[in-house]
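FAQ

Q: What does a record look like?
A: Structure on top, sequence underneath. For example:
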């Protein structure tokens, strides 16, 4: 028998009466999405702005900490200035420095938190998808500290991954301290992550797009507004500290011609193959480390042996390598030196990241992709000098294309490359090259460098964003109008005889119950009517145990589905706003499922129906 929190009242004679429909009708109507209340959006936005200010501070602390450790480890001096390890004069001793840093990181991961391992974004995605955006508070300081040690001792990583993870951890921590929903906490986490990226690179729009494509899994005002405000705040903070200049300024470039554009698109496709290979190589190396007969705490130290060896051969592979990126987009790094740097940086970074140490992916990918793009462009210029390609644009497109192919964050990659250089004439080749790289990468694998780890753990990450199909269809369009209602004054015996007769409509699973005026007073199922514990002499009025769960015919199917979930029922009585007590139909779970038939039909390829008449 149907049960619920609403119990029937008793009349003067002690006979059970059905509950009133009016309280239920007050709850019927458009159901606002969680967090869509403008007042909540304002609140979450203010919280996100506060988190952004914290992220700016965290970014400054992290970069200065990396500078301090780098200066101590490679130059033996106490300085907070951001320095490159490339100019060190340690000689063979440089082999030991990354190993010492990796041992410390391994110990921190073993006895602090294993979550500090990796580049941060997949871990943040996992917490969003599986843990209601709750990141352990200790990650707020363990992640940046471990990253500073790894990078400061020569790890070939960028600071952006750890600060994105740190900003996300700050957002999650604040969200756990406040009275917010899981969806709002996700937004605050994403706002912190986006603010961290904007604080490092001064790229507010790209930070918002990265949050949308990799963290939010939605594009809605309730999340977009707080994240945008947080990114703008963090960028303003960066400008106040470091000035408004782009992070990687490059000389002015000319608008590409037609053949040049074709070249950049083809080059982007080639970089897409490289991005797919890099992703596969990274996880293949991770699998090799997993098979080692030693505890994972020691894997970073083993990977650091390769980092130190490569750093001895080519010191520019050590550390974040932002100076390498600057030289690439400025056209100062060319020829054999560039090829050697790209190859060795890729080896060092892949082995180090696969070993499970703490670091980022963006800067190494930019170095690898930028160098590959510059090499391809230089080769094309020699073969076809009339194409009008520019090595600097080739490096810029290569940088963005490899990130687009590896992360599957197409728009974020394009806008990021523009914002770090402020070269508007590069937008067109960036869009073409990144789209081609994304296409090639998708053809090779549906998983990106960010989601492959989650997929291996059995977590599905959605990458397609579309309007909810059920939200576009009204209940009246799918509800059954062949309504079979039962009179409340009838007895259970009468209804059982009617069901046994197999009369038309008697096979339905649920029946609205109406009073003498035709107003719905409840819903009874076959189980309610045929249960052996139900006395045959009871009237249907006495059998009703809760108010009817109804929905308006102009409500969306999404609202109807949500209403079913909240009320834990499988069918809703459909009413009109003009006469909200009179049933005009019924909608079931099956009706909502079959509503998707039109969506599935729209994906089928059909023969052309257009006939051209001369």
């Amino acid at each position: 028998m149907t049960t619920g929190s609403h119990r029937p009242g008793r009349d003067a004679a002690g006979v059970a009466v059905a509950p009133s429909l009016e309280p239920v009708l007050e709850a019927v109507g458009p159901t606002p999405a969680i967090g869509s209340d403008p007042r909540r959006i304002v609140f979450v936005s203010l919280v996100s702005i506060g988190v952004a200010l914290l992220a700016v501070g965290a970014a400054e602390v992290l970069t200065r900490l990396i500078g301090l450790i780098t200066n101590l480890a490679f130059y033996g001096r106490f300085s907070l200035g951001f320095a490159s390890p490339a100019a060190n004069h340690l000689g063979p001793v440089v082999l030991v420095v990354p190993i010492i840093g990796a041992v410390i990181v391994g110990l921190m991961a073993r006895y602090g938190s294993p979550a500090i391992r990796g580049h941060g974004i997949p871990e943040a995605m996992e917490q969003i998808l599986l843990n209601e955006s709750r990141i352990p508070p200790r990650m707020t300081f363990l992640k940046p500290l471990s990253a500073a040690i790894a990078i400061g001792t020569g790890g070939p990583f960028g600071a952006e991954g750890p600060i994105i993870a740190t900003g996300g951890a700050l957002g999650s921590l604040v969200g756990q301290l406040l009275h917010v929903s899981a969806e709002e906490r996700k937004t605050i986490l994403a706002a912190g992550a986006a603010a961290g990226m904007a604080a490092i690179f001064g790229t507010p729009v790209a930070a918002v797009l990265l949050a949308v494509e990799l963290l939010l899994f939605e594009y809605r005002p309730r999340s977009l507004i707080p994240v945008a405000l947080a990114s703008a705040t963090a960028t303003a903070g960066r400008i106040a500290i470091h000035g408004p200049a782009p992070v990687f300024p490059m000389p002015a470039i000319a608008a590409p011609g037609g053949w040049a554009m074709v070249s950049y698109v083809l080059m982007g496709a080639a970089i897409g193959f490289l991005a797919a290979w890099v992703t596969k190589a990274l996880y293949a190396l991770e699998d090799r480390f997993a098979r080692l007969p030693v505890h994972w705490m020691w894997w970073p130290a083993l990977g650091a042996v390769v980092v130190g060896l490569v750093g001895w051969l080519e010191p520019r592979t050590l550390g974040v390598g932002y100076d390498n990126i600057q030289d690439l987009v400025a056209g100062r790094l060319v020829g054999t030196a560039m090829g050697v740097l790209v190859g060795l940086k890729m080896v060092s970074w892949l082995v180090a990241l696969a070993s499970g140490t703490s670091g980022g992916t963006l800067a190494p990918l930019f170095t690898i992709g930028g160098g590959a793009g510059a090499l391809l462009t230089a080769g094309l210029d020699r073969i076809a000098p009339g194409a009008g390609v520019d090595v600097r644009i080739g490096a810029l497109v290569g940088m963005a294309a490899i990130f687009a192919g590896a992360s599957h964050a197409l728009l974020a990659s394009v806008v990021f490359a523009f914002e770090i250089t402020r070269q508007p004439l590069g937008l067109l080749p960036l869009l073409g090259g990144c789209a081609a790289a994304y296409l090639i990468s998708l053809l090779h694998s549906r998983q990106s460098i960010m989601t492959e780890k989650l997929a291996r753990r059995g977590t599905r990450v959605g990458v397609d964003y579309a309007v909810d199909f059920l939200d576009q269809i009204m209940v009246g369009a799918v509800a059954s109008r062949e309504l079979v209602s039962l009179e409340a004054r009838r007895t259970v015996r009468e209804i059982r005889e009617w069901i046994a007769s197999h009369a038309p409509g008697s096979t339905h699973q649920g029946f609205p119950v109406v009073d003498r005026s035709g107003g719905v007073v409840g819903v009874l199922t076959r189980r309610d009517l045929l249960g052996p514990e139900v006395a045959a002499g009871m009237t249907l009025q006495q059998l009703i145990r809760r108010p009817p769960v109804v929905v308006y015919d102009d409500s969306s199917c999404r609202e109807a589905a949500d209403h079913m979930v909240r009320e834990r029922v499988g069918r809703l009585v459909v009413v009109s706003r003009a006469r909200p007590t009179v049933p005009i139909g019924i909608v079931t779970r099956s009706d909502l499922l079959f509503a998707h038939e039109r969506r599935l039909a729209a994906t089928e390829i059909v023969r052309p129906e257009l006939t051209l008449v001369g």
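Q: Is there anything notable about this one?
A: The first strand starts at residue 9 and ends at 10.
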